[in-house]
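Input record (one chain):
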Amino acid sequence: MVPAVAQMTISEPQIREYILGALDSPVAGEIDRRLFIDPQFAEEVFAIEEELLRDYDRDTLPAEVKRQFETRLSVDSVLRTKLEHVRSLSAALEEPVHLRAAAPPPKPADRALWAWLRTPRFAWGLTLVLAGTCAWLAVRNTRLADQVLAIQADDARRAAAAAALPATEPAARLPQFELSPVLTMAKSHARLLLIPTTAHDVQVLLAQRTKTDPGARFLAILQNPDAEELWSGPAAAAGGRVVATLPAERLSAGDYLLVLQMSLPAGTYREIETYTFAVVRR
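The corresponding structure, as predicted from the sequence alone:
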């Protein structure tokens, strides 16, 4: 059999000194150990501590003991919390009997837990946890700062690259003209189109006298005065008119005919309007 280890005898004055923080380390360490494993001993320590708290609240402690107790209160937040509970209990006891609510007595397990929370072992463990948390937060903040700097650097590179690109000129406005169907082929009735030499395309809005089907397709045919075809392309109905876009390179200075054809159900086209105009390039 393993011989039993002799247990150190701890007196009430030593427990009071332990609570006041004035006890030698060997005995204090033994009290810490027994608080953790001996609920009955923890109950005894808790009772003595409660008595000191009541005496301090009543201001009946000797001057030296009061000074030691206040020093311990200044560094022990758990003890300060217990003092607030004692003061609340004292205030409640001063109320009329019919206003006091009966409170259940504290359980031994709760008292042992409170006593263990005051031990240096718990304080040291809590310190390690807080230190680890602070270290993790520092590393995380460093990584976030690096990511922000990388994003800012990338934005700066993109801005510099955009600034280095040559400035593009705004797209030239597409010249646009309205044409009406001719009643006579006389040149005096031809519409004059002033087309810039820089234009690539010209848009003509063609009015109609002939009623067209909603789903009809249109074909625009550009001709010279001798009715020779120079260009042909699709046109589209828009806002009661037909819009055709003509290539400006086909429109040198001179006179032109524009024939508008409409599709038939059989898939062929028939001529519905003719327009005349003259072009001047400038």
